[in-house]
Every structure is written in structure tokens, then in C-alpha cells.
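Long-time lurker. I teach an intro course on protein structure, and each term I like to show students one example going from raw sequence to a predicted 3D structure in C-alpha cell notation. This year I'd like something fresh instead of my usual example. Would anyone be willing to generate the C-alpha cells for the chain below so I can use it in lecture? Attribution to the forum is fine with me.
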Amino acid sequence: MDEAISLFVPGRLCLFGEHSDWAGQNKVFNSDIKEGRAIVTGIEQGIYALAYRSDRFEFISDVSGEDSSFSCAMEKDALREVARNGGFFSYVAGVASYMCEWYRVGGVRLEVTKMDLPMKSGLSSSAAVCVLVTRAFNELYHLHLNTLGIMNIAYWGELRTPSRCGRLDQACAFGTNPVSMVFDGNEVDVDRITIKKPLYYVIADLMSEKDTVKILADLNSGYPYPKNEKDRCLHEALGDDNLDITARAIRLMNEGDTEGLGKLMTEAQKLFDEKVAPMCPEELTSPVLHRTLQDPECVRLSYGGKGVGSQGDGTIQFLAKDEESQKELRDYLHDKLGMTSHIFTLRPKTMVNKAVIPVAGFGTRLYPETRGVKKEFCPVVDRDGLVKPAILVLLEELDEIETIKEIALILNRDERQYYEDFFFKPLPDSHYDHLTKRQQEYEKKIGDIAKKIRFIYQEEQKGFGHAVYQTKEFAGGEPVLLLLGDTIYSSNTNVSCTQQLIEAYSECGQSMVALQKVPIELVSNFGVFAGTWDNKEQTVMKVSKVIEKPTEQEAADFLSVEREGKGDNYFGAFGSYILSPEVYNRLQTAVDNNIVNSKGEVELTDALAYVGEKYGLMGAVIDGESFDLGNPEAYRNAVANFGRVIQDRN
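-- Reply from a regular --
Happy to contribute to a lecture. Here you go:
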């Protein structure tokens, strides 16, 4: 049997905006309907599985409550028949039939190893199963689907079953990240949401009953055209009122106002009770839900709460005040109220607090200048008109990023004195006194930058990847920003190139390479990356292919990317990266097992390619220009254009 691929798909929780997905879809019939918007997140509970290639479609599980396994020929008609018949396996068959019909794929064997996602609790277990199957086909057969593509196929696959899922259910494809989903007729837009502080949620099964089919039928009766006052209130609640609530929720999450977010949950529930519940009072009066929301102990431990999914007496969610309150509330709901309860925490993406810059090496291509001056100290004119060593331009850009606290320079041990003299040796008074006031202020800035510098030594010259590996202990299991010592950057915006990369990472949380568009005749000078776009602006790419310095033919055959409706775009490394712990682990494997190129060097590109295949690698197209200083022609260009480009742009 082929090597297995490990998969995990979380359940999803709608934090705000339930029902707005199907309401917004009705805009295709009534243009006066406002678009829907929901804030949805994956949770910590989900489905774990191993996926293999197979001649058939097989799904093996002991968590369905029915048969423990399902097997079918990889034929669309047979699979569609299973999907139509309903039941647990209809979902997996629906997706498999869609893949069989529209893609050139073989079979899949999926073995569910663990499932801690509650069934039928408003957490979209069926959607998670559909996303799981889609991801298995995508990764096993290298279909290069982006996250939105996976979400859409999971939705279309579930529509082949008796289920009538909403468009927000498959948001679990985005993992345990909060996203804003906008439903405008048949169009769906998804944007990740950045949170500033941890959010401690508790979810509980109210252990009561509700009729979801009746709820949806009664609410749908008010669309697409309102016929009476109750219908008009429903349109307001799922339209303008919902857009206001969700906009405020995104702002509060961005600002880290946890208490305000909890109060907004309570406000959203009140709005639902006043304007939506009258459409189906038998199911949405929800006595158990409201009794639990008003329970004094629940009020004490939380900032607010509301119903989940279609609402009714199904599932409840609370935003606890802190981690201790979260655990106490979970236990109270379970032990005192007899409810099955779970916790999950939304945390800010790990901040990038450390940077590394390799500067070891003689600089042969700049000989004979490098007999006396390290290439990183070759001068350029910066945007402020000061003549600076290139390394200082880089360090100053890092110093302006608030989160960067430590910077490691990777150098040869005998080069340390060079840096000590420049950054740590005070300027003699006879020189300092001749500086202008502006220059004296900058001298202090050099001292402030020096406080962040650490030295790490590369005892042997075994390639770029080997140099980076020397900082594994410095990284300490955190994401690390990597810059090249002989490259400087010029942004086209008021956000520096390095800050652009960090902001892209904060949304994705995966290893990331900065990219720039390069003409095909220059691809042999770059590591070139290809993949599928992961955002509608086509600035963030899910990387699926990496080739170091390809030929033009290799690039044309394997690395072309369509962008803005045009093919034959090629994206090379910009000169900066964010490395996850997985990259360092792969570099260690390469060092320990002598995995090297033909020159005996450990390559970073190989480690990135491995991590991309196993864990995922993202690319961010930077709005700016990088200037290589490592060879005479590039250095000539940098000296002539770097400072001038920035000044002209200003």
C-alpha cells in the first residue's frame, strides 16, 4: 500500500450570522435582499484520518453509528446512487461521485482513526466529512485545489445527498481559523480574521430536541419576497442588522475587546429572538437555551452567549472570561446541568519575534573589494540620504517592526570582530563631535539596533540550508523570519516588504516564502515557486511545486501560474522567508543524514519543498523590489537605483 497521508478536518462553529448564507443566496431572485455575512471558525474537535490511493473508493470508520466500512467501485453512477439514498456514507459518496465526474482521479481509501466531533450538534460534522474526502483526493492526486476550491467541492458533493446544507458549513476547510464569509447571490467571498487576544469558548449540547427541518422551512417561507411584517423583520435581521453585528464583531476581534465581543453575542441573541424567532415560535422559543443563558453561574463565568447553527434547543456557545473560567464553565454545564460540553480556544497566530540573517562567506564575486570589506558592508544610499552598509539597511527595516525582538547574525567565528567594531564600539569623541545633530541621532539608533543582535557561528561552509540550521536552538520552536545578508528591499507602499510578509503569515500561520514576479528568461537565477492562489487578490499562493534555478523549459512545463486571467506567470524567491519549526526539523534530518546537493551542500529549497508537500507552504507576492548585492552587475544596479527609486516614489 502507498504511503499514507495524515488528515485532520475540524468541525465548524458559526459565531455570528447564522441563516445569512441561504438568505444572501436569495439575492439572485430579489435584488433588494442584502448580502449575508457570517463569522465562522473551525474548532479543536474534528475528524482524523489516513488516506491512501486505491482502485476503489473506500471509507472505513467505526464512529458513524452504522456500518463500520463502505466500499464502492470508483464509478460516478454507483456513487451517486449511494449519495441519493442518504445515511452517513451518502456524504462521502456524494463527494467521491463529484470527483469521479469532474477530475481524472483514481480511488481513495480513507481510514478514520479518531473522531471527537459531536454528531448532529450544529457543528457540521457532515460538512467536515465532505471536506475530508475532498482534501484526500486533492492531496493524493495533486489537484492543486486552493482552500476555497476544496470548500466548494465539499458543498457540491453534499448537495448530491438528501442533506440541504448551507454555504457556511464547509468553512471547516479553512482549519481552526476564524473567517468572514459573504454570501451575495451565488457568489461567496471568504476572508480570514485576525484576532488580537485569545477567545475562550465553551460549547454545550442542550440535551433537548429541535426540528431543524421545520425551522428552515418556516424561515424560508419569508423569502425571497417579504409578504407581511414578520417577513420584513426577518429580512432586516438577516440583512442590515446582521451586517452591522458582524462588522462590529470583526472590529472587536481585531482590537482584542473580549468583553465587548461577549456582550455582542448577547445582543445578537436578543435580535434573533425579537425578529427571527416569531417565524417559528414552536422551535425557536427555545426554553432550555434561554434558561441556560440566564443561569447565574453561566453569567458569572462568561461575557455572553448565544445559540448555535439553526438555533433552537440544540447547542449553546459561551465566551468565557478567561481560561480558568472556561474550564469551570465546561465542568458546570456537564456536572450540574447534565450537558455534554466542549471547550475550544481561538488564539492569535504565533507572532514572529525573531529574525536570522546569514552573513558568513567571503563574497568571491565581489573580489577584490571583499579582501578588505565584507560584502554586507558595501555601501548604498538609503531613502533618508545617508550612506549605509547594506546590512544596516536590513537591520533598520527589522528594527522598525515592533514584534522583532532578537536578530541573529550567522557568521564565521573570525568575522565577529568586524561586527563588534561597527555595532558595539563607541565612535571616538573626535569623530562624534563633528557629526551633525541628525547624524548624532542616527548614531544612537545604531546603538539601539545593536541591542537586538546575537551572533551564531557556522563552523563549516556546507551551504545555505546548513547556515540556517545553525539557528535552530535560537529559534526555540517559534516561527523565524529569514533575510538574506546580501539583499535589500524597496517597498512600493508605506508598508515595508518585510512587514508585508509578516502580515501575510499572520493570516495563514504556515511556512512562507516571499515572492516576486520574474520573466521566464531570468528563472534560472531564482528558486521558482508555483501553486494555486489562496485569496481573491491573488497575492497569497498555496505552493505545490518548487524548483531551484530551473531551465526555461522546466519553468514553462511545470511552474507557470495563471494570474488575473493570464497564464505564463513565474514567481521567484524575493529574498525573505518565514520558517516554521518543521523547516528546522527537516534541515536537521538533512544534516544528520547528509542529504546534500551535487556540491555537498544542504539546501533550504529542498527543505521548503519537503515541508510544503507534508505540511503546507505558502507564498506571498510582495509589492516591492529586492536588490541583490552579491555580484558586480547587481551591486551596480542597487547603487544606482535603490535610494533613487525610493526617493522618487516618495
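Some talking points for your students: The chain is about 40% helix and 25% strand. Residues 229-255 form the longest helix (27 residues).
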